[in-house]
Amino acid sequence: MFPRPAFFAGCELNFAENLLFPASQPDPLSLAIREATETTRRDVTWKDLRERVRICAAGLVAAGVKKDDRVAGYLANHANTVVAMLAATSLGALWTGVSPDTGVHAVLDRLKQVEPVLLFTDNAVKYNQKTHETHAKLSHVASELPSVKTIVVFETIPGHPFDLNAIPTKALVQTESTFLENADLSRPLTFLPLPPDHPVYILYSSGTTGTPKPIVHSALGTLLQHKKEHAIHCDVHPGDTIFYFTTCTWMMWHWLVSGLASGATIVLYDGSPFQPHKEMSMPLLIDELGINHFGTSAKYLSVLEQAALNPAKAEPKSAHLSSLRSIFSTGSPLAPSTFQYVYKSLKADILLGSITGGTDIISLFGAPCPNLPVHAGEIQCRGLGMSVKCFDASGKDITSSGEEGEKRYRSSYFETFTDSKTNQPIWHHGDFIRVNPKTGGIWMLGRSDGVLNPMGVRFGSSEIYNILLKHFSASVEDALCIGRKRPQDSDEVVVLFLKMAPKHEFSQQLVKEIQDIVRKELSARHVPKVIEETPEIPYTMNGKKVEGAVKQILSGTNVKTSASVANAGCLEFYKEWAQKK
Questions:
Q1: Residue 464 has pLDDT above 60, yes or no
Q2: CATH classification of 452-580, choosing from 3.30.750.80, 3.30.300.30, 3.40.50.720, 3.10.310.70?
Q3: Which pLDDT tens digit goes with each residue over 14-56?
Q4: How far, in Å, are 66, 161, 221, 258 from residue 11 at the CA level?
Q5: Angle between the 461-471 and 298-306 helix axes, to the nearest 10 degrees?
Q6: How many other β-carbons are positioned within 10 Å of the β-carbon of residue 420?
Q7: Distance of alpha carbon 392 from alpha carbon 419, whole angstroms
Q8: Residue 479: how many CB atoms within 10 A of its CB?
């Protein structure tokens, strides 16, 4: 809808106030946040959280932060990050976050565009039982962000050295304690009333093939969507404990933090999901903290599936997941075999909610529902109030047909499809989906820009991934399925790259077995013509496979390597492969 109408015109609210003082009025001494790392635990009550936000907001005011300023966090997932975000938004400032595992160029690609006036950061972070210093990265970032006037360094790793004076910047670089020394600590916790569409968050597109685009989200839209999804779709009750494994870059961090608005306790975990007890690390954490709703990626669940993990039978420590009512999965399609694994080996009486949404809307299109059955391979339903439809390549609405179709701002998102009745442009999100006309569930088949189309047959890469997970999970650790069509090619060729599991070797016998099973269970048109071994699969910072950039490389396009690719170095393999083949 452009121009967009004003929703709830004349009303005012503050985003932070709604999270700090939810309608359910939780006991001030009950837990708002449970902070966890690989080795430590720390609890924050509602009373403590409000007090920390009050003090931090006073520090921001003393630093000159005001309405509409941008405040950035180059931070790990801990309570101070939530405190800083709530303090900033209580003043009407906009929050934008980037996790410390993000490379310098990726950080600058984002923050240069939004020009933050204040930057929060960590003195160091820990991951996979190792301490990682942040000084060098911050030095580079700070030297190229002239908009930043103040840098606040949290002592996230106690005692870890951090030379404030060695940061090459004109900004004032302070520890948290020094930052607060200049604050009026008698300042009460107040919330600036703002229009419903006042911006609260800035997120970014993935930027896998170009500079990430900043995406601004409003306070009321974010709040309403998240409360709807938590309370209605995900069955989150006041007092429940909700945990989504995420970094503060990913939209799921914002989604998790909004759990406070429903009166839930949120778990903030910073570290590897496989430490300190390998595959049992998260199941043991769920039992220890009494987590009711656990969110993760489809990739994580497939790793547990490949390991045939049964937490209740694990040695020497088992986990029974008795508190767990829901598991949510996103980031990529959840294979049908993984549905079966979860109900067989993790917990039978549980809501397994495969979900899909986007940074573009900071919420969900396809959502779970506690009142509907779960069908293997399907997202249960379309979100309440979300008009999700499938269109074929000609623009025909095929939502009810069960056929495969496409569901993607402005020129990128609104120029592909038009409503035939109103002649209004339709949002094209860019997922390749099929809607089950019997159940109303959604099958996620991959990204529409990564759709495979050999000999005119269109299918999604997840169909190939599902076959590999079902039949070859022991020998194949990961895979990347790409369609290749160069200017000189008359037809597209499906290329499948395999990353072999430890102690397993790539062979032509394996190639034949994969091709035979794909032919048997899918069709001859689905069979990858080329199957090759690869040392590494490229992923974004949010854990999504980078299919688009590899497709362009294989098809002869000169792709600038994006800093959004977490392991961008591995793209060299694909460039060399494309030149040889």
A1: yes
A2: 3.30.300.30
A3: 999 999 999 999 999 999 999 999 999 999 999 999 999 999 9
A4: 21, 48, 13, 21
A5: 20
A6: 11
A7: 13
A8: 23
pLDDT in tens, 275-301: 999 999 999 999 999 999 999 998 899
**Residue type, position 331, single letter:** G
One fold for both 15-272 and 452-580?
no
The residues that bridge with 357 in the sheet, in sequence order, are 364
CA atoms of 420 and 64, how far apart (whole Å) = 51
| Spatial distance between the Cα atoms of 55 and 36, rounded to a whole number of angstroms | 23
Tokens of 423: 């002649």
CB 233 within 8 A of CB 364: yes
What span, in angstroms and rounded, lies between the C-alpha atoms of 41 and 5? 45
Domain map of the chain by residue range? Answer: 15-272, 452-580
Instruction: Give tens-digit pLDDT for 50-63.
Output: 999 999 999 999 99
Residues 542 and 206 sit within 8 Å (Cβ to Cβ): yes
Distance CA 577, CA 568 (A): 15
Q: Residue 460's closest CA among 407, 387, 508?
A: 407
**Nearest alpha-carbon partner for 23 in 33, 13, 9:** 13
Q: For 520-571, give the DSSP string.
A: HHT-GGGS-SEEEE-S---BBTTS-B-HHHHHHHHTT--PPPPTTBTTGGGH
Residue 446 DSSP SS3: strand
Q: Residue 159: which residues within 8 A CB-CB, separation 6 or more?
A: none
Q: In what order do the strands lie in the sheet with 378-379?
A: 378-379, 442-447, 431-435, 404-406
Q: Superfamily for 15-272? A: ANL, N-terminal domain (3.40.50.12780)
Cβ-based neighbours of 148, under 8 Å, separated by 6 or more: 72, 116, 117, 118, 119, 142, 169, 171
Locus of tokens 């359910």? 24
CB 76 within 8 A of CB 99: yes
Angle at the Cα of 466 from the Cα atoms of 465 and 472, rounded to 5 degrees: 80
